[in-house]
Amino acid sequence: MVNDMDLIKATFEVFAKLITNKYVIISAILAILADILYPRFRGFMGEFWVRQELRKLPSDRYRVLNNIMIEENDNTHQIDHIIVSQFGIFVIEMKNYYGLILGDEYKNKWIQYVGKKEKLLSKSNSSKLWPYKSKCGSYRLFS
What we know:
Helix content: 25-40%
Order of helices and strands: HHEEEEEE
Largest sheet: 3 strands, antiparallel
Number of strands: 6
Strand content: 25-35%
Shape: elongated
Structural class: alpha+beta
Distance between the termini: 86 Å
């Protein structure tokens, strides 16, 4: 019969052999880095894709502003994209969420469906989904 000490010793020996293998160490480090950096990478790629699509708009009819920082009192707000045209002013706040998200600007609660799982998104747990109102001032965009 195997006692607890023998099991711990055998586990430690296997772990010691694995840790001496440089490929296992490199793989573990890459896995940890991927887990940490993946959400940022997804966000960057989502904004990059939208920026590339917005570049296709005719520059004589649309003015596209990217990554706009607005300071109001002691707060700073960042807006991903603003499009100004004769048709109106459009603000795009890019969120690289996955699944199906249902809701609109008049509802306090949205629902995110990922596979068979349902997640409730509300102002209390995801305030970045709802636009803020602030007096931004005016800018001359067309000459």
